[in-house]
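Now for one protein, fold included:
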Amino acid sequence: MFLKEAKTGDLVDVVDMASLTNPFKRHVTVQFQSGEDLADPVSIDKQHLAFPSGEGLPECWMNGYYRLQQR
């Protein structure tokens, strides 16, 4: 899945989808897609990622306790 780094707008390819959708994991492994060479995987904080449209990641991917806070 391709996302973008919110600050720079660079596209990243998510290497580990399980950590992306796990709300109790703060970091996710990605590969930056800028340049001709494939970059080495790096760990990045999910707070710095967004969908290519600019929309933020769903709260249920970010916070494992989001349902408790809605009450």
The chain has three helices and five strands. The beta strands are 2-5, 11-14, 27-32, 42-45, 49-50.
